[in-house]
Write a structure and sequence with these properties.
Length: 476
Amino acid sequence: MANNYYDSEEFRKILKSYEESEKTGENRFFDSNDLLDIADYYCLHGKVPEARVIVDNALETFPDSDDALLMKARMLLTYDHDPDKAESVAEMVNDKQDVDYIYIMVEIMLTRGKREEAEQWLEKVYGSDEEEPEEVAEEIAKIYADYNDMKMAKKWLDRSGDDDSSSKKELRVRILISNGEIEESQAILNELIDEDPYNTLYWNLLATTQYLSNNIEDAITSCEYSLAINPNDEEALLNKANGLYQLGNYEDAIKYYKQFMKLRPDEDSGDMMIGISMIAQDRIQEGVEYLKKAEKKITIDSTHNNEIYQELTLALCKLNHFDEALAYIKKSDKKKCDHNDMMVLKGYVLMMKGDFDAGQVCFKKALKNSGFSPYIYLKIGIALYENHLYISAYMTTKSLIDTLTHNSLISSTPGDKQIQEKNVTTIEDMPEVYAYHALFSLYVNHEDEYEEYKKLAYEKDPNVADVVLGGLNNNQ
């Protein structure tokens, strides 16, 4: 496990004594630290309700325990996604100079999106004479990595000294993965696994790299190693379910998503993926019900808002529930979503409903609000195709390819610094457009153009090409 103390004989005796006292009802004394260690151990093994009880009991016995208050605050933030309740508990801490109090307050700020304020607090901790600066820098890097801000994680990791500890290697791996540097991250992970083969975190990260490399079966195998060590490892269960989904094994994927949900009923991702898996099985109505459950679980720090609203809207359209689909798009206006994406989706739904003029208005609004983003332009082309407007879809991707190719030429011109500084999107940035243009060309009977762009699609991005073109009868 990640915490070697939990494998020690000392902790095993304490845990055994505690669990025996719970079974027999015998009143045994455990100090605050022992109770909080057991609670943390239970959290790692998916026994969050039991951990909550332990923390609450610890606070009854030791009402002035800052550590118990901080753990309760962290659980409210992690499992309830409630920064307000977490802050109210954290404010009961006596020692406001305690670095752990500062860290939980920073995480509350990050959850609320107050990154500048959080960074100011962290700089103060780093500059404090009471803490070792390199240790603080590493801890700050971990916090930022947990909140998926890898740019800031790297900044602080670079300030944490030159020693090459396993914890720093793990942080470096997470940063490398976010930058798409898969081979280098795998090399470091193999070293870490050789050093500590029973660390589920390393196996889960390896599974992530394999998943990103489209080595789905290898990723599932890595998840199975992790689950052999800890059958209740949340990340391994979710990763294995995602792998099974990618292989089209929807029934088994649903089984593992449900196991994940038993451990994390608060998370929207389990319901969302069960819904998507059911839709893939043509169980549309059942899928919609799970997606609605996921939508109700969206919180301040949810990362699946876009996906939930998009999948729910598309599924409702398949059921011809267009007004309900539009109602969910309206609800998304108040959530943290890509609102340009949602505007394209609104245009799609209106066209499906038969209101083509209103749909075009939405497309134009999304384009304008996005600064005429080529990604939005492609999504509009896909929406037109889905509405059987094949010529319009074809013209969209034809125009897009011309623009992106032109951008590639001017951005590679040595003297064109002004263009380069604008960081324009080039055809190299959007290889997926080849696959979609091939598809749209086929539907307007431009077979030579279809063959030309199909070839380019498989050369530039075979995975996307397979998704877009793999179902065609005359595909290679």
